From TrEMBL:
Cited function: Catalyzes the interconversion of L-alanine and D-alanine. May also act on other amino acids.
Official protein name in the record: Alanine racemase
Lineage: Bacteria, Bacillati, Bacillota, Bacilli, Lactobacillales
Pfam family, one: Ala_racemase_N
Modified residues (N6-(pyridoxal phosphate)lysine): K40
UniProt cross-references to SMART domains, sorted A to Z: Ala_racemase_C (SM01005)
Keyword set, alphabetical order: Isomerase, Pyridoxal phosphate
Organism: Levilactobacillus paucivorans
Superkingdom of origin organism: Bacteria
């Protein structure tokens, strides 16, 4: 997709905010506990390489991604830190991961036996670093009982040319919930499974942002820090954050066209909005093709710092807002972020759309240019 460099609509990413959110967490960790910044999905829409650099500057010791291509993007950008792929990869890619010193999440024994044959075919460029994933109640990927886990560790031990047992981890499904009943059950299962381990690998980890913010006692020696690094509260609004999180992302544009509607005239597809009286209307060059959702009809943006309602349907590339008075073409529009004493947060947008800020942030498409400040 072409990047809209010649359109006044952009995502602005504040690197100082990223560094501040990440450094504040690094400072809270007990000595010996590392922070890996989670930069999957293009750094939650913020730009993976730029976020990785800010995280490294703020004290992150490594990175987590979801898929192999995201890990390769970081290697191509020159990052030599540990990188863990959190999702399931193809055993056929084991030699590539080994060569690039990228750590794989392994969730089943048959993956190891298959990967072993690929590694031997390729002449095992280096041992493949493996983190065993444990399913303690997330129900997504991972070993589910002690005998299977022990068999996998024994296999890694007896195939030390091909594999290095580097880590073991689990993922909580309710760490962002004020009710910790299920969290405690998962942690108990984690303790039972890890007690069965024949040996302890370099990294033992359970914590995403929510766990590290609100259940830091469980951290062990690594946290996988994601959404909070971007300045977003993992719980939405359910639990107060332990230190100030500074949102790093803003979305801004400009009015490209304004007009005065007469009473009875309509706006946008379906003519769902009709002016009751004469009013000023501005057009903003952003739409659902940019990830600004069609469901946002009736929500608002800030025009020159003043909240203005989005009227009529959000189109693919444009939307219309009702203005308090005539505003010149080029007037600043803030769709996410602060202008004066007014602010629209990603959380506000997510709440209006009936979803979570994660989904809005990583839904911004590549047509939006990302500009980096500070
Ligand atoms: C995405 C992810 C994280 C990061 O989660 P946040 O809520 O963004 O901190 C950590 N661990 C795993 C396994 C993940 O998939």
């Amino acid at each position: 997709m072409a990047i809209g460099e010649h359109r006044p609509t952009q995502l602005v990413i504040d690197r100082q905010a990223l560094r501040q959110n990440i450094h504040a967490e690094v400072e809270r960790l007990t000595p010996g506990c590392d922070l890996f910044m989670v930069v999957k999905a293009n750094g939650y829409g913020h730009g993976a390489v730029q976020v990785a650099q800010a995280a490294k500057d703020a004290g992150a010791r490594g990175f987590c991604v979801a898929i192999l291509d995201e890990a390769l993007e970081l290697r191509a950008a020159g990052f030599n830190e540990p990188i863990l792929i959190l999702g399931v990869t193809s055993p056929a890619d084991a030699p590539l991961m080994a060569k690039e010193h990228i750590s794989a999440t392994v969730a089943a024994m048959d993956w190891l036996t298959e990967a072993e044959s690929y590694l031997n075919l390729a002449g095992t460029p280096a041992p493949l670093r493996v983190h065993l994933g444990l399913d303690t109640g997330m129900g997504r990927i991972g070993f589910r009982n002690a005998p299977d886990l022990v068999a996998a560790v024994d296999y890694l031990t007896s195939h030390a040319t091909e594999f290095e047992f580097e880590g073991v981890f689990t993922h909580f499904s309710t760490a962002d919930d004020p009710d910790d009943t299920y969290f405690k059950q998962q942690f108990a299962k984690w303790q039972t499974l890890t007690k069965a381990l024949p040996r302890r690998p370099r990294y033992v980890h359970v914590s995403n942002s929510a766990t590290s913010l609100w259940h830091a006692a469980c951290n062990d020696n690594l946290v996988r820090y994601g959404v909070a690094g971007y300045g977003l509260n993992p719980s939405g609004t359910a639990i107060q954050e332990p230190f100030h999180l500074q949102p790093a992302l803003s979305l801004t544009s400009e009015l490209v066209y304004t007009k005065r509607l007469a009473a009875g005239e309509s706006v946008s597809y379906g003519a769902t909005y009709t002016a009751k009286e004469a009013e000023w209307v501005g057009t903003v060059p952003i739409g659902y093709a940019d990830g600004y959702e069609r469901r946002l009809q009736g929500f608002h943006v800030l025009v020159d710092g003043q909240p203005c309602e989005i009227i009529g349907r959000v189109c693919m590339d444009q939307l219309m807002v009702r203005l308090p008075h005539n505003c010149p073409r080029g007037t600043k529009v803030t769709l996410i972020g602060k202008d004066g004493d007014q602010e629209i947060t990603l959380q506000d947008v997510a709440t209006y759309c009936g979803t979570i800020h994660y989904e809005i942030a990583c839904g911004f498409t590549s047509r939006l240019p990302r500009r980096y400040i500070h």
